[in-house]
């Protein structure tokens, strides 16, 4: 029997959707522990308090989740210090980003963001038929907010500011962000993606909730995937002004945030102090790695996130291969550079050895 000729017509916009490249799973030569430093995950296992609620919740996975995530939204609103009407949750902040583009962009509209930045941005834009306008980061690996403001046209619906920026690790500062916001038309939504906000120690970084309160076109995106260590459960949220939050809820996949994700996120907010102690340990490891790199002669942009960026150009493939030969899976971005997640202490120490042996470039 021959298979039939596939005939349904698919949206032409899908031909422009770049493929998402997932981080490589850990693999190592025999006798060496492999470490996955390729997806900016939290190396710590779930907290006991989170395990307990997950275990209890297994009894009810035959039921649909609370579609409105009432308890989770109440817990997030109490934590942020806003009204529950200002919170929208989604299947990770990537899920919310999709809702944002769906809620704002008609085909041909534009989404402005820095490049390199998060690889999901051009994907969610293309899925909505929107055009990605990518503004290069500068030589210091920072957003060029003035050039991003220049790039806004009457087709621009969304500007995404990723701070700390994935994969370059740099933050935008309070004063430059305010100057930028003063130039953005009121009807353009500015998304502050702070997936790594808990790792920031730079005193000039903005208080994003304060920025949100003072600007009617700003939305803050946060996730439970990184500092909170729940990447596998898929839950994130937006802090948004009411009409925007309501629009995001309309664009949500019904029952998308599942019951396990809801209870684990609530338990994680309750255990925030314990989790922030882990974050502080990861920040200390980041500082140890950066000091070790500087001592070995590497001149890199300081990272405010849980990863370090190596803009190695044509050396990227060799550097990634050297890491992988040592059992360290890292994330290579073509010939732009390599991003390495701060992981277990042993992994970080081994990584430093690889960098010393490779030599600064
Ligand atoms: C990891 C990451 C996210 C979070 O993704 P989730 O879908 O919440 O897991 C969002 N933005 C950036 C820049 C990231 O690196």
Would you mind describing this structure in some detail?
- The protein has 361 residues and is of the alpha/beta class.
- It is built from twelve helices and twelve strands.
- The strands form three sheets. The protein has a seven-stranded mixed beta sheet, sandwiched between helices. Strands 9-12-11 form a three-stranded antiparallel beta sheet, covered by helices on one side. The protein has a two-stranded parallel ribbon with strand order 1-10.
- Bound molecules: pyridoxal-5'-phosphate.
- The site of pyridoxal-5'-phosphate has 14 residues, from helix 3.
Describe the protein's topology.
Blueprint: E1 35-36, H1 48-57, H2 70-80, E2 87-90, H3 92-104, E3 110-115, H4 120-127, E4 131-136, H5 145-150, E5 156-162, H6 174-183, E6 189-193, H7 208-214, E7 218-223, E8 236-239, H8 242-250, H9 259-270, H10 272-295, E9 307-310, H11 316-325, E10 328-329, E11 331-333, E12 337-341, H12 345-358
Helix pairs in contact: 1-9, 2-9, 3-4, 3-8, 10-12
Pyridoxal-5'-phosphate binds at residues 40, 92-94, 118, 162, 166, 193, 195, 223, 225-226, 231, 236.
């Amino acid at each position: 029997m021959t298979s039939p000729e596939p005939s349904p017509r698919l949206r032409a916009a899908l031909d422009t959707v770049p493929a998402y490249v997932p981080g490589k799973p850990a693999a190592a030569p025999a006798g060496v522990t492999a470490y996955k430093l390729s997806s900016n995950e939290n190396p710590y296992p779930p907290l006991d308090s989170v395990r307990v609620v997950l275990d209890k919740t297994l009894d009810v996975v035959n039921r649909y989740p609370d579609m409105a995530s009432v308890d989770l939204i109440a817990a997030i609103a109490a934590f942020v210090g806003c009204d529950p009407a200002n919170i929208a949750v989604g299947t990770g902040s990537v899920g919310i980003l999709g809702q944002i583009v769906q809620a704002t962009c008609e085909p041909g509209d534009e989404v402005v963001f820095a490049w390199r930045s998060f690889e999901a941005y051009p994907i969610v834009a293309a899925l909505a038929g929107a055009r990605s306008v990518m503004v290069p980061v500068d030589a210091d690996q920072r957003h060029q907010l003035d050039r991003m403001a220049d790039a806004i046209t009457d087709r621009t619906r969304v500007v995404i500011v990723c701070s700390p920026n994935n994969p370059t690790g740099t933050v935008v500062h309070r004063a430059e962000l305010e100057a930028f916001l003063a130039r953005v038309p009121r009807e353009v939504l500015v998304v502050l993606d702070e997936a790594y906000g808990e790792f920031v120690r730079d005193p000039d970084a903005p208080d994003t909730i304060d920025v949100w309160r003072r600007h009617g076109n700003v939305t803050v995106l946060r996730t439970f995937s990184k500092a909170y260590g729940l990447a596998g459960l898929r839950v994130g949220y937006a802090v948004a002004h009411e009409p925007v939050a309501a629009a995001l809820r309309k664009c949500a996949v019904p029952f998308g945030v599942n019951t396990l994700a809801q209870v684990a996120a609530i338990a994680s907010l309750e255990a925030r102090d314990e989790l922030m102690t882990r974050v502080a340990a990861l920040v200390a490891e980041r500082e140890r790695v950066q000091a070790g790199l500087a001592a070995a002669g590497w001149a890199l942009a300081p990272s405010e996130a849980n990863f370090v960026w190596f803009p190695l150009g044509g050396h990227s493939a060799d550097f990634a291969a050297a890491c992988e030969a040592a059992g360290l899976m890292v994330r290579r971005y073509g010939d732009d550079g390599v991003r390495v997640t701060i992981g277990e202490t042993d992994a970080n120490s081994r990584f430093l050895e690889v960098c010393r042996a490779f030599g600064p470039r």
